[in-house]
Amino acid sequence: MRHLFGTEYGSLVLAKVGLLVIMLGFASVNRFWLTPRLPTSREEKAAQLLCVSTTAEIALGFTVICVVAVLGQMEPAGHVHTMM
User: Fold this and answer.
1) Does residue 81 surpass a pLDDT of 60?
2) Which of the chain's termini has less CB crowding within 10 Å, N or C?
3) pTM reported for the whole predicted model
4) Could you give the dihedral angle defined by the CA atoms of residues 56, 58, 60 and 66, in that order, rounded to the nearest 10 degrees?
């Protein structure tokens, strides 16, 4: 656990997981709240909200990919050996 909370690698892993959770939140709002409103909505409010939410979800996905790319270049925290 100390490698997860006490290293830069662990912080990036936690950031990635947090971003994924937020992405899932946007996805569930899109799927269960905004998409069902599209056929019945006479105003374009639901479509606009869906576009904004989908754009945010795509941006978060791109950010997750960038974090994973950085993690791929780093040495995992459990493999870092320190002299005591």
Assistant:
1) no
2) C
3) 0.77
4) -150
80 CB neighbour count, 10 Å cutoff? 12
pLDDT band at 42 (very low <50, low <70, confident <90, very high): low
Closest Cα to residue 61, out of 25, 7, 34, 32? 25
Across 62-74, b (16+ Cβ under 10 Å) vs e yields: eebeebeeeeeee
Angle, CA of 25, 27 and 30, to the nearest 5°: 110
Domain range annotation of the chain:
14-74
* Cβ–Cβ under 8 Å, residues 42 and 57: no
Query: How many residues would you count in the chain?
Result: 84
